[in-house]
Amino acid sequence: MSASPAASASTPLVFITGASSGIGQALAARFARAGYRLALVARRTDEMLAWARAQGLDATRCQVYGADVADTNSIVAAGQACLAAQGVPDVVIANAGISVGMDTAERGDIDVMARTFATNNTGLAATFHPFVAAMRARGSGALVGIGSVAAIRGLPGHGAYCASKAAVVAYCESLRGELRGSGVAVVTVLPGYVDTPLTRENRYSMPFLLTAEVFADRAFDAIQARSSYRVIPWQMGVVVKLLRVLPNAWFDRLFSGRPRKHRQGEGAPRG
């Protein structure tokens, strides 16, 4: 899909990574309903284009960019292509991520951790990079990092994922301070459990499970409000705050023997 930068230039634009399924696709649909133009990034561009056509979104409303978020040059190029084709987004959502279990005793899982950080952390910063200067010059915009309640405490077997999501929270906090006074907001959204193809692989209970559509509605509201930090649903925010203050010995005992996240080869790794 292609269109000139002038096409529908007065209509707000959202740039979303990981838009081909799950939370990313639900967010794309929610922003489309709100009248936004869409700039959608996915590795599976054919699926993304088919989805856009099914939604009745033509080239003036939606463009798709193929990129691998774990490859810095690839995602930066996608952002630059968006700037050239559609202009400066009003909202950039770094949603793409992977979630894979790990065992530090296994050599291959150290590579899993490196890939997780490349996607969930370096990829997030690289997603924002092409837009920071342009948004700052304009004096408005929102950069949205999708974290997880898994950022709050490290869970056995979830070391790479929990560490990467904790880093998302800290990075976005740093970026928020850097952009203070510029008119550019930094929003950190921490989903609890959301029903997606990825979470259906989980082997443990998922309290307060939301549909992707309900999550997208609540995340949209948080982004529109320029909330600096939002846990969705709020009930999970209460739970994780309690876990944060739980003494280590009690926390360790509570999660001892809990089923762990699938390691590489045991389940679907992409979020």
Please give a structural write-up:
The chain has a single domain (13-255), classed as Rossmann fold (3-Layer(aba) Sandwich), CATH 3.40.50. Helix content is 45%, strand content 15%. It is of the alpha/beta class. It is globular.
Question: Order of SSEs, N→C?
Answer: EHEHEHEHEHEEEHEHH
Terminal residue distance: 25 Å
Helix/strand class: alpha/beta
According to CATH, what is the class? Answer: Alpha Beta
CATH architecture: 3-Layer(aba) Sandwich
Report the strand count: 9
Return Rg in Å: 18 Å
Trace the largest sheet across and list its strands: 3-2-1-4-5-6-9
CATH topology: Rossmann fold
Helical content, roughly?
A: 40-55%
Please give the largest β-sheet: 7 strands, parallel
Q: How many domain modules?
A: 1
Short description:
The chain is α/β, with parallel strands linked by helices. It is built from 8 helices and 9 strands. The strands form 2 sheets. It has a 7-stranded parallel beta sheet with strand order 3-2-1-4-5-6-9, with helices on both faces. It has a two-stranded parallel sheet with strand order 7-8.
